[in-house]
Amino acid sequence: MRQFIANSNAIAGKQRSYFVMAVEPNNKVSDSKWWSITVNSTLGSLPNFNDEVELNGTVLNADMTVNNSNPDCLLYNYSTNTLESVACSKSIPVGVGSDGVPFSGDEPRLNAIPKPEIEIIGVAGSPVLNFTAKAHVSSVSVFSGSNGIEVYGDDSQLDKVFAGLRADGSDPSDSGFPRISSHGIRILSNNTTVNSSIAAYNGGLGIRFEGSGVNSGKAVNSIAYYNALSGSNLDGFIAVNGASNVIFENCVAANNSGSGIDNYNGGRITIRNCSVVKNGWGNAEPSGIRVSGSGSEIVNNLVAENVGDGILVTPTGSTSTPTGIKISRNSIFKNGYVGIDLNVEDTSNNMGDNVTLNDGQLDCSQPNCGIDYPVITAAQLIGSSLHIEGFINDENAGSGSSSFAGATVEIYMVNNSTDGDDLAGNNVLSGGSTSSKFYGEGWIYLGSLTADSSGNFRGELNVAGKGAEVGSLITALTILNGNTSEFGPDARVTTKPVKVRAEMAITFRGANITITALEEANNVKLYWIKPSGLVLTAEGDFDSSGNDGDIYWWEFGSISAGEVRHVNLTFGGDFSLIETFNIGVDPLQ
Hints:
Strand content: 35-45%
Distance between the termini: 71 Å
Shape: elongated
Number of helices: 1
Strand order of the largest sheet: 3-4-12-15-18-21-24-27-30-33-36
Helix content: under 10%
Radius of gyration: 30 Å
Oligomer: single chain
């Protein structure tokens, strides 16, 4: 390794490594074998890579074919909250996809990440690998040392890297080795991408984009797991100290001591289709996501079971009050406090200040201009159609404010009879008092409406297949000019009374039943109890029909206001005429 680095630095231009091992692997677990390269502490840390290089840890045989001696992969398991060794064909869903519904099938997949054949054990107090020029690093594991990999060269790329964990995916301390004392991957270069990599078991941060020289960068298809073991306020992923335009996408941030994804003293970031779960157990920075960069976007993520807030919007360090942060179509639930917290009062910038009640104003001296949340006044379910009414303003106003004209109102289900948010921590107000009301969190995205010129909203949402039912709790948030509010007070879904009239007229050979809608109705069902001994045939302009024993039904998918529909019955057999009048209509099925 030392000689390769020396040669790479001495020869101008890009150099590439080839690992053709002359000895058998010096590590073995079950059917997996790999090579450990221990940096000689007497000689000191490895020299920096000072010229463009490709360091590829793929081990080759003498004939240059690939020696895949460590054949399995690692992947996060949602059920056990651990990294597990799996077949490389495995994958998991990440985020919630464009529909905002967790585990619905439209989520992107995170493929299992291959175990490398080469691990490099560093020297305490120094980074294991340090690249001062453009680098492409792949298929290596690094641990021990101060930082795992430091990158200063612009346009670099890291693929299939393990930072902080051994080549078999285990915690180095389990084998008697020191963990990395600081960060798994530290990036101070512009336009660098981390792809299909894992940072785990580090004393400090998992993957860190740092400094004002970082004007773009990506961490995609990657995992930050169980990091910040020596600091309760450190995180899984972070863009820090001026780093901006960093994208975290298709990722997992799980079980980190601090936030899963942090934006301390940083610029604009994007978090898209990531699963941010069970973070913040160090209790110093307990939110799943903390964001301070104006113009940031947090969309289509799963944010669940974090110790503090789901998403905390707050100034940090020297950042000004952040505005224009869009938070949309995420699934946020079972976090210790509120789902979204616009932090007005917590000067520590770490814990948030819980629910900030509406004041009917936009005030851009506050995070996201202190935008008000929606207040739902009616939530009525008819079949798969959810009727919503409400306003954006002070909760006691009773109607909207023109300050919020044209705002998007996103509606979310909090929970239904089987699943969803547990409401814990969602009734704590700014200042620490508790309310009789609960505010979110938003578990399943149901759809959106637009506020009118007076800040009121009203409309219908198709919630078919999303689990909405009578008795469900729903909430909403406001988006205006890129600013997103906290979740509003929960509302209970009820039935909507629809005026539908059924009339029956007996004829010589049967009966004629008419269904009249006094207003538009969907999924109307007519029920009739057939008398014993009666033989029946039916025709009419219904859409479907059926029976359960002697209970017959006819369904009409949609009836317009004032429209009349028909069911014509023909009778036969020996029966009691008085028993034929048992009809009923249900517009709520």
